[in-house]
Structures are given as structure tokens and as C-alpha cells.
From TrEMBL:
Keyword Transcription regulation: no
InterPro entries: Bact_Cytoskel_RodZ, Lambda_DNA-bd_dom_sf
Listed transmembrane segments: 114-131
Disordered: annotated segments: 334-354
Record's keyword annotation contains Membrane: yes
Superkingdom per UniProt: Bacteria
SUPFAM superfamilies attached to this UniProt entry: lambda repressor-like DNA-binding domains
GO MF terms held by the record: DNA binding
Lineage, opening ranks: Bacteria, Pseudomonadati, Pseudomonadota, Alphaproteobacteria, Caulobacterales
Protein name in UniProt: Transcriptional regulator with XRE-family HTH domain
Pfam families: HTH_25
Keywords: Membrane, Transmembrane, Transmembrane helix
Pro residues bias: start-end ranges: 340-354
Length: 354
């Protein structure tokens, strides 16, 4: 390779870089296709280098790489070829310019004046604030309390020696209070079918009103509008709800006051650690505790639906009784009304005399 470089023509002797590369290629006896394979450069770019058509070449960085590779393949000095390429094809980038702005000497001359002005302004603001604070300070004045009674200390010592007694704790308020049913006098017999003045009348007992569900913590499970069964924990206990295929629908360690709403039309089993730790609410009313550690959810939903139908039947019966009472009252009022009096017949005029 060194012998080839000594026999190759010099880059400085040729007028242009392209002529030097072309003369070296002809002296080497290689074709353009062979040199393209050696340098991995397209023949079009090698031809552009020999013809000094630098505008055909890609970016400047790639062009210098092509010159280096082509010169090395022809046995020429690579650095010399690159330097001559830079001279014949200078970079068109804009050279750096001197920075513009205020001169350093000018800034040094004006800086003390600016700092002095800022210092004066700061001193003026601080002085004004101090002056305002001093003006607002009020002089000390004597207390309005002329003298302290001597018996105050004795009374305080006497209160300290007394014992403090607390009464017994009061019972907690009930969850729900239901007022007694009010019936208008005179309508009790029509609404209930029992005369209140008859001592031998037997009054049917009214269904007891159970305590309503009172949420005292988070409520999990189904929505309130779609659930009729609620399980509320009275103390910390475990609640696991398993579906018929064994999948877990709900599992959680419930704290006291937390509850779970059961979804309707779901075949599942309610498994609890302590049945007495859970209160069952059907349609919002208390229905006792869970019957067993494992209770079918379908039975609870069926009980809730049956209670709902009974409540609807009682409401319908009460509405029917009220309707009959109103009809009977209207009939009695119509019967007690006086009958209309017919007007007397008009007197006939005497026939005219013949």
C-alpha cells in the first residue's frame, strides 16, 4: 500500500481535487464499479467528486467521509484530500459574530448609581414602617380593676376541697320511636270495625312495628333500591357469601355497624363466623338474627318478598276500609237530609159568567 501511495500522483500537483482523484483512478487501473465496491460509495457520488460537482453530494459530513474513503482506496493521503476538499468547498455556515449589548465599562459606571437608588428606596420603606409602628403604640394605662376582693381566694380554695359527684349514665336513645296511631273520634268504628264504646268488643292486635335499619358505617353490596335484605354486624365478625358454583361473591371482616346489602335473584349461601353477631333487616325493618352459620340467601329474599306482599295486602285492606267508611258516611248524610217539599198547586180561575 505504501508503494502504491508513492507511485500515485500527488494531490498538490493537480489543479483541483477532482482531477487528482481521476488521475489516480486511471493510474490504478481500477474501474469505477470496483472502487464503489471497495469504498461502499455510490458511483454517482464518486463521479461527482472527480468532476468537482460538490452540489450533487449529500451533507458536508458525508461528503468528507466519501473523500477520505476514495482517497484511501486510490492510495492517496486521506487527510490531505480532506483538507483540499475543505478549501475548494468551504462551509457556507454564517460565522459567529461578536456579542451585542451594553458595554462592560458602561455597566460598571451605572451600577453604583442603580444600587444607591435601590438602597435609598429600601431605607425609605423600612423607615416608614417603623414610624407607623411607633405612632400606634399606646402608652400604659391603669387597670379598671381597682382592688381584688379578699374572699375570692378563700372561695376558690373551698371549691377545690369539694368532691365532684357524677350521676348514673342515661340509657341510649332508641333507634326508632313510633307515635301512637291517631284516629278521629267517630270514625274509629268505621275504620276498625269495632265500637270503642262496647266493653265486650275484641280488638285485633296491630302488627308490631320493628326497628328500622340505621346505617352506622359503610354499607357494601347491591344498591339500596334493588335490595330487600340487609345484614348488619353488631360486633366484629366475618361474612362470606358463596355462589352455587363456589365463587366468592363477597368476603370481608365487618366491624360493628358495617352492613352488606344482598342482591336479588342470586343463588348463594351466607357463611358467617357467629350468627348472633348479625342483625337481619327485611325491607328496612329488623327481623332478628341469622338462623344458622350457613344460611341460604334465597330463603332470606323469599321472606323479604313475602313480608312485602303482606304489607301491601294490609295497606290495600286499610284503603278498602276507608273507602267503605267514606261511602257509608256519604249514604248516612244523604239519608238524614230532609226531603224536598213540593210547591202547592196553583188555584184555577172561575169560569166567566154567561
Amino acid at each position: 500500500m505504501d508503494q502504491d501511495r508513492q507511485d500515485a500522483p500527488s494531490l498538490e500537483d493537480a489543479e483541483t481535487l477532482g482531477e487528482a482523484l481521476r488521475a489516480a483512478r486511471l493510474a490504478s487501473g481500477r474501474s469505477m464499479a470496483q472502487l464503489s465496491t471497495m469504498t461502499r460509495v455510490h458511483p454517482r457520488y464518486l463521479t461527482a467528486l472527480e468532476q468537482n460537482e460538490f452540489s450533487v453530494l449529500p451533507s458536508r459530513i458525508f461528503s468528507m467521509g466519501y473523500v477520505r474513503a476514495y482517497a484511501g482506496a486510490l492510495g492517496l493521503d486521506e487527510l490531505t484530500a480532506v483538507e483540499r476538499f475543505k478549501r475548494e468547498f468551504p462551509d457556507a455556515a454564517v460565522p459567529l459574530q461578536a456579542p451585542t449589548g451594553a458595554a462592560l465599562q458602561q455597566m460598571r459606571g451605572t451600577s453604583p448609581k442603580v444600587l444607591a437608588a435601590l438602597g435609598v428606596l429600601i431605607l425609605a420603606v423600612v423607615g416608614w414602617n417603623v414610624f407607623q409602628r411607633v405612632v400606634r403604640i399606646e402608652p400604659p394605662h391603669p387597670s379598671d380593676l381597682v382592688a381584688v376582693p379578699k374572699d375570692w381566694a378563700k372561695a376558690a380554695d373551698a371549691e377545690v376541697d369539694k368532691a365532684l359527684y357524677l350521676g348514673a349514665p342515661r340509657a341510649a336513645p332508641p333507634d326508632q320511636t313510633t307515635p301512637a296511631l291517631y284516629i278521629t273520634p267517630g270514625l274509629e268504628a268505621q275504620l276498625t270495625g269495632v265500637d270503642p264504646d262496647d266493653p265486650n268488643a275484641v280488638v285485633a292486635p296491630a302488627p308490631p312495628v320493628q326497628a328500622a335499619f340505621n346505617p352506622r358505617g359503610p354499607v357494601y353490596g347491591a344498591a339500596a333500591i334493588s335490595s330487600q335484605v340487609i345484614l348488619q354486624a353488631k360486633k366484629p365478625a366475618t361474612l362470606v357469601v358463596r355462589q352455587g358454583d363456589g365463587r366468592i361473591l363477597f368476603a370481608r371482616q365487618l366491624a360493628a355497624g358495617e352492613a352488606w346489602r344482598a342482591p336479588p335473584n342470586v343463588s348463594a349461601t351466607v357463611d358467617v363466623s357467629d350468627p348472633a353477631a348479625f342483625d337481619v333487616y327485611l325491607n328496612g325493618e329488623h327481623s332478628g338474627a341469622l338462623p344458622a352459620p350457613a344460611s341460604p340467601l334465597g330463603q332470606l329474599n323469599a321472606r323479604a318478598q313475602a313480608d312485602a306482599r303482606q304489607s301491601e295486602a294490609r295497606a290495600a285492606a286499610a284503603a278498602e276500609v276507608q273507602a267503605r267508611a267514606r261511602a257509608a258516611q256519604a249514604a248516612a248524610a244523604l239519608a238524614a237530609a230532609p226531603a224536598p217539599v213540593a210547591p202547592p198547586p196553583a188555584a184555577q180561575a172561575p169560569p166567566p159568567a154567561g
